[in-house]
Amino acid sequence: MTHLCQLNQTAAFTNSRQSAQPQPSLQLQRGASLLEGIAYLGIAAVVVLGAVSLLGNAFSSAKSNQAIEEIVSIRTAVRKLYMGQAYPKTGSEMTAALIAANAIPSTLTRSSDGKSLTHTWGGGVKIEGVGDGYTITYSALPKEICMSMVSGANGWVNVSKEKGAPIITFPVSAEDAIGVCTESTGNTVSFKGGV
After folding, report:
1. CA-to-CA dists, residue 7 to 3, 16, 19, 138, 185, angstroms
2. I need a surface site. Which of 56, 94, 95, 187 has the fewest CB within 10 A?
3. Tally of structural domains, the chain
C-alpha cells in the first residue's frame, strides 16, 4: 500500500512539473510579430483614409446643398419683400434692402457696411433689379458647386453664366449645366426670377 501511495505521489509530481514548464510551441509564440504589427497598422491606415475621404465628400455635398437652399431662400425673401409692387429698375441694388430686412440666410457673410454678401467659397452674392424681375448672382463658384446649383434648377425665368446665352428650359439638364460651369474655380452664375 505504501508503494502504491509513493507511485501516485511520483506521478502527481511529474505531472505538475511538466505543466509548470512552458510548452515549446507556446514558448515561441508570445505576441504579434513585427510583420503582423505592420500589417495591422496598414489595414488601420486604409480604413482611416477611407473614412476621411467619405467624410470630405459628405461635407462637400452638404455645402452644395447649403448653396441651393441659400438661393431658394433669397428668391423667397425677394418675392415677400416686393410682393404687390414692382421690382426695382434695372441695375438697382437690392442686396442692402434684403440685409436691412434681415431676409438673408445666416450662412452668407454680410459685410461690415451691410451692403454686400459673401458665400462659403469666398465669392460675392449680388441681388439686383432688372425691371421685370431680379437676378441673384453668385461669383467665384467652384465647378462642382456650380454644377450642383445649376443642374436641376427650376422655377427661374432663366439661368446664365457671365457673358453667356441664358438657359430657359427647366429643369436645367446636365449638359446645359456643363456649358454654364466651365471654370474650375471662378464660375459666375446668374439666376433670374420675376413675375
Report:
1. 6, 14, 19, 97, 91
2. 56
3. 1
